[in-house]
Amino acid sequence: MMTEKKLYKRLMAYKKKHGVTQEIYQHYLWAVKVIRQQLDAKAKNQ
Questions:
Q1: Three-class DSSP labels, the chain
Q2: Out of the domains of life, which is the source (predicted)?
Q3: Number of Cα atoms under 13 Å in the Cβ half of residue 43
Q4: Residue 12, CA distances (Å) to 17, 41, 45 in order
Q5: Could you tell me the CA-to-CA distances from 41 to 5, 26, 27, 38, 46 in Å, in that order?
């Protein structure tokens, strides 16, 4: 499962190579939100 830390590392690697646009940053924020929702749902089920 992708974690916020792994996602951040991938964003920084992409930034070094290509730069980060507003669109890429918005996708990153959306992905972080989804990860947090999945973790919350997983925690509620246990």
A1: CCCHHHHHHHHHHHHHHHCCCHHHHHHHHHHHHHHHHHHHHHHHHC
A2: Bacteria
A3: 6
A4: 9, 28, 33
A5: 19, 23, 21, 5, 9
